[in-house]
Amino acid sequence: MGLSYTTQKSVVIRSWRLGALYYGLVAVVLAYVGFFLVYVERGYQRTSRAVGNIGLKVKGQATLRDATTGATLVYDANDLVMYEPSGFFIATALATTLQARGRCPGMDEDETCEDASACVVGTFSPSGRMTGQCVATALKDEDGKVVKRCEVEGWCPGEPEKDEVTVLENVGNFTVFTRISVEFPGIPDEDGEGNMLWTNLNGTKPTLGWNLWTINDLLESGGMSVKEVARKGWDGRVDVEFDCNLDRGIDACAPKTPYTLKQVMHPNTLSEGFNIRWISGQNVGEPSAQAGVVYSNETANGPGKDVRLLVKGYGPRIRFEVTGVGRKFDWLTLSTTVGAGVAFLGIASLVVNAVMMYCSGPKSKQYESWLFAEFHDTPYGSTEEAT
Ligand SMILES: Nc1ncnc2c1ncn2[C@@H]1O[C@H](COP(=O)(O)OP(=O)(O)OP(=O)(O)O)[C@@H](O)[C@H]1O
Fold it and tell me: Name one Pfam family in it (predicted).
């Protein structure tokens, strides 16, 4: 056949049915582009992913009743809060062990022994470094027999096998001051000098429900309560979500409140709840004498006792995640949306042509001949090829 050239030819078909179908489809496409793509999906605004930072400070007072002495001690945030980047842990219950360096029976089941052959001197075990002795403990097995354990050198006595936890009172009323700043890169501020920036620090003092939250508030937003998490701890995340229409100005921008708290660890797994150990800087005195425990009278700096209060704290761990978008009118975004939408108009012609050719019964053949015409360009002029 050789080379050929294909070009467009406009065909006007005077048919009210096809006309109605075509303009009906055009109306649907225009409604989709104008209403859905431009208005609902905000195709006239550019979006910028929020880049957020958060600073936290927790304050409050709690009490803990000592189970043995009955004395009530006041604890503040400095005793109970551990900070981490964008989050914190607050203890709602404590298990404390007063320890000094010395020798004592290991407290781990793996350190159980019948005789000294199981205790290899110098070997590291869960509680310390073995001395090579197998010694009696204060524990009894199911048959009432005294349990023997390898003696270790280390911090003594070891933590009890089962935590003896005491719950603090009033931790739910501790307040969390959240200092949030959010920037929208690529969206200039009113002066055009930098990016749009939002903070929750306007005002002269911290405000509950704005930049100040109680532990109760935060837990309740996730359907939790201090009582539920107090003894075992909990691991969660607070989502601070922005969806800001910056055409209304930065002052109209705010995160969704109340924040939503989500659990990040699922219950009934290997590691349930949440707890952290730390050494308290409290002036702790000396641990009491106990069977099998020999305290060392030597420290690295000469005679004396090295003493520490080991604290295992249970409670909620809460991290904050600042996410979201800012949107602002932009000609380029609008023209891209409209341009892409207009391309959909081709669908209307495509559908009408398909209806003409495949769904018009005996007229289909005629429609086809109107749509496609082929000409032969010869030195004597052109001839139309019959279809
Ligand atoms: N958890 C909180 N509960 C109540 N108020 C708080 C809390 N955290 C901070 N504030 C108060 O918010 C303001 C700003 O706190 P910021 O830490 O910037 O200042 P500060 O002077 O160092 O605070 P402070 O010395 O009181 O801890 C201060 O008035 C501070 O007392």
Answer: P2X_receptor
Separation of CA 319 and ligand 1 centre (Å): 19
CA of 176 to the centre of ligand 1 (A): 10
In this structure, what token pair is assigned to residue 271?
């590691």
Mutate to test the pocket of ligand 1, among 177, 181, 218 (most ligand atoms within 8 A of CB): 177
- Rounded Cα distance between 343 and 336, Å, is 11
CA distance 263 to 223: 10
Per residue in 238-283, pLDDT tens? 999 999 999 998 888 889 888 888 888 777 778 889 999 999 877 6
Distance 237 CA to ligand 1 centre (A): 23
Q: Please count the other Cβ atoms lying within 10 Å of the Cβ belonging to residue 155.
A: 21
CB distance 59 to ligand 1 below 6 Å: yes
Rg over alpha carbons for the chain, rounded to the nearest Å, is 38
Give the closest residue (by CA) to ligand 1 atom 16. 57
ipTM of this model?
0.97
211, 180 Cβ separation under 8 angstroms: yes
Q: pLDDT for 81-116, tens place per residue? A: 999 999 999 999 999 999 999 999 999 999 999 999
Half-sphere exposure of 117 (CA within 13 A, CB side): 1
Which residue ranges does the chain devote to CATH 2.60.490.10? 49-98+170-289+315-328
Q: What is the DSSP letter of 207?
A: -
Reported pTM? 0.80
Using a 6 Å cutoff on CB, does residue 32 contact ligand 1? no
The protein residue whose alpha carbon is closest to atom 30 in ligand 1 is 206
Q: What are phi and psi of 332, to 5 degrees?
A: -65, -45
Angstrom distance (rounded) from CA 251 to CA 197: 10
Nearest CA to ligand 1 atom 20: 57
CATH 2.60.490.10 fits 49-98+170-289+315-328, yes or no: yes
